[in-house]
Amino acid sequence: MNKKIVIVGGGTAGWLTAGVLAAEFAGGVEITLIESPDVNPIGVGEGTWPTMRSTLKRIGISETTFLRECSASFKQGSKFVGWRTGEPNDFYYHPFSLPPSFNEVDYHKLWCESGDVPFDQVAGIQSRLCELGLAPKTITVPEYAGALNYGYHLNAGKFAALLQRHCTEVLGVKHLLDHVVSVDLGDNGDIDAVVAENNGRLEAYLFIDCSGGRSLLLGECLGVGFIKCDQYSINDSALAVQLPYADDSEEVASTTIATAQECGWTWDIGLASRRGVGYVYSSAHSSQDQAADCLQHYIQSTAPHVSEQNINIRKFDIRPGYRERFWHKNCVAVGMAAGFIEPLEASALALVELSAAMIRDEMPENRAQMDVVANKFNQVFQYRWQRIVEFLKLHYVLSERRDTEYWRDAVSENAIPGELREKLLLWRSRPPYLRDFMQVEELFPAASYAYVLFGMGFVSSSDFSRKSDAAKLQQMLREEQKKFLNYQKAMPGNRELLTSIAQYGLSKV
Ligand SMILES: Cc1cc2nc3c(=O)[nH]c(=O)nc-3n(C[C@H](O)[C@H](O)[C@H](O)COP(=O)(O)OP(=O)(O)OC[C@H]3O[C@@H](n4cnc5c(N)ncnc54)[C@H](O)[C@@H]3O)c2cc1C
């Protein structure tokens, strides 16, 4: 008999999860996705990680189709502006390409010896290519391959629509547009069925809660608690707008630009067809009107061709935190139903991909196995959430900004997680390295910490200086410089490449 899986929610989390599962299981499983016609998906979430490439490839969507239909562009990391001092020329990069041979080379020492060269430029070539507005590949590089590591900027609404079409037309996912009104529980506390307004009872072996921040099944129905993180992550609000480009020749940025502001930070994302811009802020430090003024100021300075009357601002509430457990009984939450924290490193969709992949890879054969898998899932994702909270906080704790109460509160002693404080203590005398992080699939490897720490000017110093192979190092640096010069000549601009792909498509090989 077929095993049934019911996914509640048709936002990005629901459709990505449906795609990941349906692409794997050839038979023996029936996947139904139910989404409410009365509750809109959140409709933001435009920055992804490089993981999205392998996810889409495995789901079976061509990269050309994806780029064309989702107005997507290439994202090569994030550029952080104004986080250290807020003065002009205060910026650093967290690029997606890891420094070559990161675990063998003391990049921190190289950086200290390099004078004024920023750490991201000492540790690789990607940030310099991003500054030049260049793409991570040429049109002849096959789909999903890249000369440099990249993820995407995409239109969230179009992305969900593409996934829906692919899931229903190619992968056989059953789609119901109906509102879940109640949930039937069995004697053992499992969910027996969700009850929909028009379709009645939908029974399943496994229920996946992708119902958004409300967490309809896991939170509301099964009563799994919520761990608040507002002590560490003080931003609880966001304003978002969509901006047209001045004209078809305006460059499409290769990174998300995150600019520190008075009471939070703005994001700036360049899609192929428009920009997505927003302000994430703390409502305890700024009213909505003040936040709108700050956003308006940013828009005027970066898009003077857009008049204030043509801007439609959307407001979002952020409740920073995550569920005590993510998989409980026969229900697992993915996406906003599992948790959310400010999108400073755009980690939400990456967590959706990782959650869906683990459900796929560890799909329990029977109910007894399910509790074992659930335990493992919960441990893995609790660890991941803790690392996210910690890594996002790292962007604030090293800031020298004290210009507003917001910045003073953001870096106060009790706003810093204990484990992060311990790590910072060790890093005072050595840079982050492999064994600081214990998982095989770390969300943020030691190199990511290094980009942020040293990008913010943090210095490690030790009495125990270590030997290094100077000749080998110089050889590697020469090769990197050669690569930079080659790429500088060969890579098209982001906009130029997107225009060619729209016309000719990428090679499928
Ligand atoms: C300001 C902001 C910026 C963000 N930026 C990024 C980013 O750059 N990168 C990133 O990775 N993430 C980002 N995110 C997060 C990202 O938007 C979400 O993780 C992503 O969209 C997934 O949302 P979701 O599918 O879990 O929830 P939603 O989009 O809220 O979908 C919930 C679904 O549940 C359905 N539903 C609800 N109730 C019922 C019911 N009773 N019956 C049936 N169906 C129901 C709804 O109809 C809907 O389809 C951002 C979030 C915010 C707020």
Overview features:
binds flavin-adenine dinucleotide, 19% strand, 509 residues, alpha+beta, 3 domains, FAD/NAD(P)-binding domain, 36% helix, 6-stranded mixed beta sheet
Quickly describe the structure:
With 509 residues, this protein is an alpha+beta fold.
Tell me about this structure.
The protein is α+β, with helices and mostly antiparallel strands and 509 residues long. It has helices spanning 12-24, 51-59, 63-69, 107-113, 119-122, 126-131, 156-169, 216-221, 288-302, 348-361, 367-397, 405-410, 418-427, 446-455, 470-490, 494-504; strands at 3-8, 29-35, 73-75, 77-81, 91-95, 151-153, 174-177, 180-185, 191-196, 200-203, 206-209, 226-228, 237-244, 256-261, 264-270, 274-281, 314-317, 321-323, 327-328, 331-333, 339-340. It has three domains: 3-73 and 152-229 and 320-385, FAD/NAD(P)-binding domain, CATH 3.50.50; 97-135 and 417-484, no CATH class; 237-317, Alpha-Beta Plaits (2-Layer Sandwich). It is built from 16 helices and 21 strands. It has a seven-stranded mixed β-sheet with strand order 5-4-14-15-16-13-17. A hairpin with a 5-residue loop joins strand 8 (180-185) and strand 9 (191-196). Helix 1 (12-24) runs parallel beside helix 10. The mean pLDDT is 95. Bound molecules: flavin-adenine dinucleotide (FAD).
